[in-house]
Design a protein that fits this description.
Blueprint lengths: L2 H10 L2 H25 L4 H24 E4 L2 E4 L5 H14 L4 E4 L3 E2 L7 H15 L6 E2 L2 H5 L8 H8 L3 E10 L2 E10 L4 E11 L3 H15 L6 H8 L6 H13 L5 H17 L4 H17 L4 H17 L4 H13 L3 H14 L4 H13 L3 H14 L5 H13 L2 H21 L4 H13 L3 H14 L4 H13 L3 H13 L5 H6 L10 H7 L3
Parallel strand pairs: 3-5, 3-6, 4-6
Antiparallel strand pairs: 1-2, 6-7, 7-8
Helix pairs in contact: 1-4, 2-3, 5-8, 10-11, 11-12, 12-13, 12-14, 13-14, 14-15, 14-16, 15-16, 16-17, 17-18, 18-19, 19-20, 20-21, 20-22, 22-23
């Protein structure tokens, strides 16, 4: 007989809890009746009968607890499980919680303002950044945290899935200049709330609130900080709340890729810089936005020059800025300096192993170098770190196509087909995503659905050069040469100037001998 097995099963079926509850209630009933019965001159054998009934009821309650459980849906029979597996699972969970892993869950936006999600996300990220410098604390990355924004798992299940001992969750209510932030720190292993706090103030108080929350976590978990960690915990990227707000707003549009959104992001980053000329994070964001604008929409050299200047300024004010190095990597990539670009991307990864953008830049560099196998590894890493950054789905398809890896190519196509509908429900205005989904559907042979998605993407940004260029590629691939030429002309009229790429793009192979295409390329 394995005693450990039976004790574990008794705990799982809550028999011990039921036994204790029954004994407490029985004792209370006996005490009450011992006082009440004499007042009503009840016969002596009545009390004896009551005690006998309570004694008989005890084993019956245990049998009931073993077989059934009370649930929100009523009484139901307990399912039998393999107790050895249960013990192993519980043991593993206990082992995983010997560490001090903390997950900062995305703060829930409960503001009446529809545009305030950027603020609650920014608050979450800032707290993660503050805590990530503490060696004694194992803090989950921002990308891991954001995956659980809409999770319906209970706290204990979340902790088990994330292998975390502690969870921080909260809400943000922002109305004009007023701010209300509630926070709660939970010990998952014990399923108890360690503390809960509500902070009220103005937008300018957000930095102080971030610092208070971080320090309270350190105190609750009894973490010992070095003098350097104490300084880092109190460090503020800016003390200007307007600059902070402009930087967060800019990041909403940074990776949407359309020309209008990138220009809007650049304007907002510039506003943040104007308000705080030493704001390293805003300079790094500006660098990324300008480099992306140059690469995808406008080959005016002023953008690549501005991107390089912004990267270097960011590094002046924060020499360990991973984001500044990854932006510099993209700058050198576009300046056709792959060696310098690779050094910058790897520097970015060394400062922040969770910088998805740095892996994306390095992956693209590997593709240029003919290292598609290494590129595929980096693109998969990007998807692990940021599931909403959808470019790698297309990048991986190109890498696997070059490698003639049909199995992985088909696998990523099928994954993309599952990803895009969900993504587009959350980001219906992402024109490039509609187009990438169209390419994926085309590869799966779902041509009519593909055409529909392509039309959606074009309709949302009909004058965007990269959108119309993608449309030209799509129509060329389905052998609609007339539509391909029409969109290619429009792309060039609206500023598409990457002629070297255009001439060698395999998607446009069917147009190479067309008179209109030859005429378009004349002198280019």
């Amino acid at each position: 007989m394995n005693v450990k097995k039976y004790i574990s099963e008794l705990k799982r079926r809550k028999v011990f809890r039921s036994a204790i509850s029954y004994l407490v209630i029985a004792w209370l009933i006996a005490q009450v009746f011992s006082v009440v019965l004499p007042a009503f001159n009840a016969p002596n054998n009545f009390m004896k009968t009551l005690i006998f009934i309570l004694i008989i009821g005890f084993p019956i309650s245990l049998v009931f607890a073993w077989v059934y459980e009370l649930s929100p849906k009523g009484i139901k029979k307990i399912q039998k499980v393999d107790s050895e597996k249960l013990i192993a699972k519980q043991s593993a969970y206990q082992l995983n919680n010997d560490n001090k892993k903390l997950v900062v869950l995305p703060f829930q936006n409960i503001s009446a303002e529809n545009d305030s999600n950027y603020f609650s996300d920014g608050l979450t990220e800032e707290i993660i950044i503050r805590l990530s410098g503490i060696k004694e604390l194992d803090i989950a990355s921002r990308s891991t945290s954001m995956r659980y924004r809409d999770s319906e798992l209970d706290i204990v299940s979340l902790g088990r899935e994330l292998k975390a001992r502690y969870l921080l969750q909260g809400t943000v209510r922002k109305h004009k200049d007023d701010l209300r932030i509630s926070t709660e720190l939970i010990d998952v292993e014990k399923d108890v709330e360690l503390w809960a706090e509500i902070y009220r103030g103005k937008i300018a108080d957000v930095f102080g609130i971030q610092e208070k929350v971080s320090k309270k976590i350190v105190k609750s978990l009894q973490l010992k900080l070095s003098s350097k960690e104490k300084v880092a915990l109190s460090k503020r990227a800016t003390i200007n709340s307007e600059a902070y707000d402009a930087n967060l707003r800019a990041r909403e549009f940074l990776f949407s890729y359309t020309k209008s959104y990138l220009l809007l992001a650049i304007d907002l980053f510039q506003k943040a810089i104007d308000l705080d000329p030493k704001y390293a994070t805003a300079y790094a964001g500006m660098a990324e936005a300008c480099a992306l604008l140059y690469e995808t929409h406008d080959k005016n050299l002023k953008w690549i020059k501005k991107a390089e200047e912004a990267s270097l300024k960011a590094l002046i004010y924060d020499s360990a800025s991973s984001e500044a190095y990854s932006a510099l990597g993209l700058v050198y990539y576009n300046k056709n300096s792959p060696k310098e670009a690779l050094i910058a991307a790897e520097k970015a990864i060394s400062f922040d192993p969770d910088n998805f953008f740095a892996y994306w830049v390095r992956g693209r560099l590997y593709r240029v170098m003919g290292k598609d196998a290494e590129a595929a590894i980096d693109f998969k890493k990007v998807l692990e770190l940021n599931g909403d950054f959808h470019s790698p789905y297309g990048d991986l398809q190109m890498a696997y196509k070059t490698l003639h890896d049909e199995q992985n190519l088909q696998d990523i196509i099928e994954k993309a087909a599952l990803f895009y509908p969900s993504y587009l429900l959350r980001h219906p205005d992402d024109s490039r995503a509609h187009q990438f989904y169209a390419f994926t559907l085309k590869r799966l042979g779902r041509l009519e659905e593909a055409k529909k998605e392509m039309r959606k993407g074009i309709a949302q940004n009909p004058n965007d050069p990269i959108i119309t260029y993608n449309a030209a590629c799509f129509y060329a691939l389905i052998d609609n040469k007339k539509a391909a030429i029409k969109n290619l002309k429009k792309a060039m009229e609206n500023g598409f100037e990457n002629y070297d790429y255009l001439k060698h793009d395999p998607d446009l192979d069917c147009l190479q001998k067309e008179k209109e295409f030859i005429a378009l390329m004349q002198g280019k």
